[in-house]
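Hi W., the N-(5'-phosphopyridoxyl)-D-alanine complex you wanted:
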Amino acid sequence: MGATVNVNGRVFDQEHAVISVFDHGFLYGEGVYETLRTYNGELFLLDRHIRRLRASASMLALTVPLTDGEIASRFQETMAAAAIGPGGPEAYLRILVTRGIGELTYDPAACPAPSIVVIAKPLEELPEEMYRRGVKVALVDIVRNHPGSVNPIIKSNNLLNNALGMQEAVRRGAFEGVMRNYRGELAECTTANLFVVRNGEALTPPIDAGLLAGITREFVLETGASVGIEVREAVLKDADLLEADEAFLTSTTREILPIVQVDDRAIGSGRPGLVTAALLAAYRNGARKSTVGMAGGVAAAAPSH
Ligand code: PDD
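Structure:
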């Protein structure tokens, strides 16, 4: 099934959704985005995604010209047009806000209006087997952007740094690439945050290491304690990953995915560990609970007996 796309308020199927080649998102990668998913047909942590979208945009001196309510409506309209949402398959949603159309100059004044695109499609969840078996990552040579350059905290459409990291990972037969920062510390994966588990504690690099403040990462930091697992930030080096008891990556679409191999080296027992499994279960429970009872959520999806 294809995607349904809302371009500046008008809905198209994926073949007909187009944007001008003079849009500075296309010309210069000047724009920001968010990826969301639904649980029980309801957008998960929408408020946090909107907050991060605005924060990213402001770091590009870009204003998102919609209220929070209008952003939510645009998601709902696009999902409705795609016939996904409560009662149907879970949805993958992506919103992009770019500088808009203008002359070939970096001067923002050349672009009077941002472009806003929402992409909705059925969520393709990873097979459960990947959670049972875990994945291999590669420690890639591509260095994560220096925060004084294109700060990784900006969730921008300018994704060449991540794409180069992933290309290297793919060449090395890995599912993801772990990137170091300019100081040689571990930063994050190319499309996800990174955690290692040591002595029962889950550790993730601090924002200062130069990484995206992932919403899944934040959720894990906040909820770990509720299942008796200490989760905190710590500066991590290669050895912390290679000698970890367990490791996992986090993102909206992958949730909490165990890492069992780094290049040729097995992590811990080479199988997903108990701490990772407990956090994944807690995360999924939290996600499902926080969406149950939202308007049109589980009520629409529940069996009728
Ligand atoms: N990727 N780090 C990077 C570089 C990312 O691109 C992402 C998300 C994350 C995890 O963030 P969150 O937990 O908020 O999804 C970390 C999304 C899924 C994407 O690129 O589509």
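The radius of gyration is 20 Å.

W.
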